[in-house]
Write a structure and sequence with these properties.
Layout: H1 2-8, H2 21-32, H3 40-58, H4 66-76, H5 81-88, H6 92-106, H7 111-120
Helix pairs in contact: 4-6, 5-6
């Protein structure tokens, strides 16, 4: 977490203090030339952290059904209830029922809350 915090705070690289002198010189040259030096062990930790973050981001499915995901996508793209109903050959009232279920699963009560949550959590 220290590595991620350092990068979030603006660090352009991360070098361990126990680097051998020749490697340290090469990494300083890399930084001077506009690079982002990372010790190999730090690079591995950083990659592992990014993978963990990606897993967390993709885990926000809220147990939506395939139909709810289709309707959610329709809303995200700006379709009206009627247009969504026509696209999936269902009644507009059925679309409204699905949207009510989606709102309940996401824990939102308005379209603004819904869109904010969908966009910030990258729910698709």
């Amino acid at each position: 977490h220290k590595i991620m915090n350092a990068i979030k705070a603006g660090a352009t690289g991360y070098i361990l203090k126990n680097e051998n002198p020749q490697s340290l010189i090469e990494q300083i040259k890399c930084l001077y030339q506009g690079g982002s030096p990372l010790s190999p062990n730090i690079a591995r930790k950083l990659i592992t952290e990014v993978h963990k973050l990606n897993e967390k981001e993709t885990s926000h499915n809220y147990n939506l059904t395939p139909r709810e995901k289709e309707i959610l996508q329709g809303i995200r793209t700006g379709l009206t209830y009627k247009e969504i109903a026509e696209q999936y050959f269902i009644a507009p009232s059925t679309v409204k029922k699905h949207i009510a279920h989606i709102y309940q699963k996401l824990g939102v009560s308005s379209k603004v809350e819904f869109m904010t949550k969908v966009m910030t959590e990258k729910i698709f």
